[in-house]
Design a protein that fits this description.
Helix 1 packs across helix 3. The chain has helices at about 15-30, 40-45, 50-60, 70-75, 95-100, 110-115, 140-155, 170-190, 205-210, 235, 340-350, 355-360; strands spanning about 10-15, 35-40, 60-65, 85, 100-105, 120-125, 155-165, 195-200, 215-220, 245-250, 250-255, 260, 265-270, 275-280, 295-300, 300-305, 315, 330, 365-369. The protein is an alpha/beta fold. It has a 9-stranded mixed β-sheet. The chain has an 8-stranded parallel β-sheet with strand order 8-7-6-5-4-3-2-9. The structure holds pyridoxal-5'-phosphate. Pyridoxal-5'-phosphate (PLP) binds near residues 165, 202 and 221. Pyridoxal-5'-phosphate (PLP) binds near residues 86, 165, 218 and 220.
Length: about 375
């Protein structure tokens, strides 16, 4: 297998220049808000070990993750940027977070008590303003705020922030959530709290609704150069996709008309053609639902995926075009380079770009470009 362009058998090429440029564009767009860069789920599949240091160096004020395990891994990797983790199991230990200087997002009275018991935790109160997931339930809000104020007075915790998360359903629904959030902030103040960081908006609202930015915004998908919703034109903003998923053609075969292709023969060749084997499958995050629906680029030429995408491999029909073992195949990347986007694959698999990049599996090395 040729290694001349440096692309391995399979790899996700991570364009750190694009990441840094996206960060700078987004920071400018939301100024003067503080920016939390969201790097949960291994930086949306891009590799937190590559992405988090680049964002820290670019000046991200905060990094956000879902679990404490993710936050602790970042600290272990030497990341010293302020960190917030907001989703916890019923028995997650909070003391390691306190020791590592990680803020704990608190969604219940139970979590508040456990954070206080861990000793002088810095917490940010997560309020459910209408998403109905985690976040302090409306009925528990008064009790949590009162208890948090008492624990802060006794020096057992520090309430640094208050936040919530939007459903991105419609402008009307988001405005309703914003009202609930503002009411919750007022209630927290009335209870004697004075959280310095109020935050509500993720990528979509940060870009589309300036009044939703409060003190800080939490930006995830935009950093990776993908849209939060179809309404956000990321390319017009100058954002570029950070991930390019690519591989080397593993086999090439000339086949006659009527040849059954891959499991279940969901595709049969209509005429004599050339098939190329791509060594990536659903174990690597290539969605099986995109079987016979997506396209790849080989030597810059679009070729359709034919037949079922299997665990480790799939076939494309290169027709009469040239393809050799070792040629570079791009599944998704930057449309400006002629590649399909993660959004194109999402459309082929009836999902969203977030899921396409986040599911790239552990067999695929993330290689910084
Ligand atoms: C994932 C997440 C974000 C980032 O959302 P994007 O749409 O990727 O910008 C922000 N806040 C919370 C609470 C999240 O879970």
């Amino acid at each position: 297998m040729s290694q001349d362009t440096g692309v391995a058998f399979r790899q996700a090429t991570i364009d750190l220049d694009a990441l840094r440029s996206n960060f700078a564009i987004l920071r400018e767009a939301v100024a003067p808000s503080v920016v939390m860069a969201v790097v949960k789920a291994d930086a949306y599949g891009h590799g937190a070990a590559l992405v988090a240091p680049a964002l820290a160096e670019s000046g991200a004020d905060w990094l956000g993750v879902a679990d404490l395990g993710e936050a602790l891994a970042l600290r272990a990797a030497g990341i010293t940027t302020p960190l917030l983790a907001w989703l916890h199991g019923p028995s997650t230990a909070f003391a390691p977070a306190v020791d590592a200087g990680i803020d704990i997002g608190v969604s219940s009275l139970d979590q508040l008590e456990r954070a206080a018991a861990a000793g002088r935790a810095a917490v940010q109160l997560k309020v459910d303003s209408g998403l109905s997931r985690n976040g302090i339930a409306p009925a528990e809000r008064a009790a949590v705020f009162e208890r948090a104020a008492a624990l802060q007075r006794s020096g057992d915790i520090r309430v640094r922030g208050i936040f919530s998360h939007l459903s991105n359903t419609s402008a009307v629904d988001d405005a309703r959530q914003k009202q609930v959030f503002e009411r919750a902030v007022a209630e927290a103040r009335a209870a004697g709290l004075d959280p310095e960081l109020r935050h509500l908006a993720s990528t979509q609202a940060s870009l589309e609704q300036p009044s939703f930015r409060f003190d800080m915004v939490r930006i995830g998908i935009g950093l990776y150069g993908l849209p939060a919703a179809n309404s956000v034109d990321v390319a017009a903003l100058g954002l570029r996709p950070v991930m390019q998923l690519e591989a080397r053609v593993a086999a090439v075969r000339r086949v006659p008309a009527g040849t059954g292709v891959s499991y279940g023969y969901t595709h049969r060749t209509e005429h004599e053609t050339t098939l190329a084997l791509v060594p990536l499958g659903y174990a690597d995050g290539v969605p099986r639902a995109a079987s016979s629906r997506a396209e790849v680029s080989i030597n810059g030429r679009r070729c359709p995926v034919v037949g079922r995408i299997a665990m480790d491999q799939f076939l494309v029909d290169v027709g009469e075009g040239a393809a050799r073992v070792g040629d570079r195949v791009v599944l998704w990347g930057d449309p400006a380079d002629g590649a399909q986007s993660a959004e194109d694959w999402a459309a082929a698999a009836d999902t969203i770009g977030y899921e396409i990049v986040t599911r790239v599996g552990p067999r695929v090395p993330r290689v910084a470009r």
